[in-house]
Design goal:
By secondary structure, the protein is α/β, with parallel strands linked by helices. It has two domains: 158 residues, Immunoglobulin-like (Sandwich), CATH 2.60.40; 235 residues, von Willebrand factor, type A domain (Rossmann fold). The chain is 31% helix and 24% strand. The strands form five sheets. It has a five-stranded antiparallel beta sheet with strand order 1-9-8-4-5. Strands 14-13-15-16-17 form a five-stranded parallel beta sheet, with helices on both faces. Helix 1 packs antiparallel against helix 2 and helix 5 packs antiparallel against helix 6.
Length: 435
Amino acid sequence: MSKAPERPRLSGRRVFVRPTARGWQAIFFGALSLVAALLVGTTQIYQLAYALAGLLLSALVLGLFFSRGLGYARRIPEGERPTAGRPSRVELVVSNASRTRSPNVEIVDHLPKKRPFRTPPVGGCETRKIRESVLFAKRGFYELGPAEIRTTDPFGLLRFVRRFKARTEVLVYPEVFELASFPLRGRKGEAGARGSFAQRGDEFSGLREYRRGDDRRHIHWKSVARTGELVVKEFAQEAPQRHAVVLDLHRPGVGATGAKEVEDAVSAAGSVLYHLLAREGLPFRLLCADKGRGATAFGTGEAAYWRAMDLLAVARADGEVKPGDFLDEKLREEREELGEGVVLISRSLGGGLVQSVEKLRTAGLPVVVVALASHTYRTGGTGGVVSGPSGRETALSEDIRRLEIAGADVRVVRRPGGVAAFAGVRGAVSTRRVV
């Protein structure tokens, strides 16, 4: 979350004075007149040199006087939570503590790149606010600043620069999407249910072989197409009331994918958390398989959601444990940490993940796996998918089939659409409107 905004400072600690283009002309002609007067000895030329020097001195005094009370601060408006890739608002505040009207003001601030702004004169003892749109390319911590306020004297000969070294830390969140369909059902009833989930009023539990008398509407046709055997969806009588969202942040190895895959994994985790918050009304927690093992406690409401989003904003793929081992560890050591249902955001379907899902299902935990199709994130020199995509797609399909047979409900995130395409018809969620 963004830190508290700083108050406007009355003035910069130091004032730097620099001649403008017109000022340099006055200095040049003044020096030239003085040299000519020394050589020729004409009184009128001496007077011209003194007049130009007096004009510069007057400009210095007046410029300092009229700009003496200027202060500056930047603020993140209340309720604004900057999101990567989407415009955010920053409020720039120029204050005038003196009773005299200031000259025109030019602001130069780093937001986070250097940007100039102009504002009309600020009246005595008044404050002027400017709201600007800022685009942060990536999530994470940013520092805004330092800044400068620039004014000129009434003659336009000298420029006065006040520097403000104070910086503002801003936490930028990952982009989150409202999921059009996701296999979870909670306290808000059919608001989050689809298909057989809503009709039966039960929660998806897993897959099993078809038995005589089973409802044909529950046949899992994707598995039938892959295996040639009839497989049906199995439902539990009671839906899980608490879900642990587990984010795979295992450190990439040699030849692994880059930042886009990690960013999509983080965005998918945030989207699932939002789904649990806004559409299901269920308690949730976030478990990160990174080096620091970041985690939140079970909770509901916006406070719990933003605690989890704070972790996602700075999450890094530096974990030393694969997702399957991480789940085994949690199941073995602290079963309650996983609640009554697990949603795994995984960048790899190997590493014993099928066996981990089987253990979770044996323990009575429904499992949803959001898998990132890693091969769709790898590009060759021409920007296309690397050679052999059909082989990798076949391997992915086989991994999904094994996970589904083990009892998991699997959803896949692919590039180029990424999480936006995975979300379906729903769009990005505004951070100004959580629920």
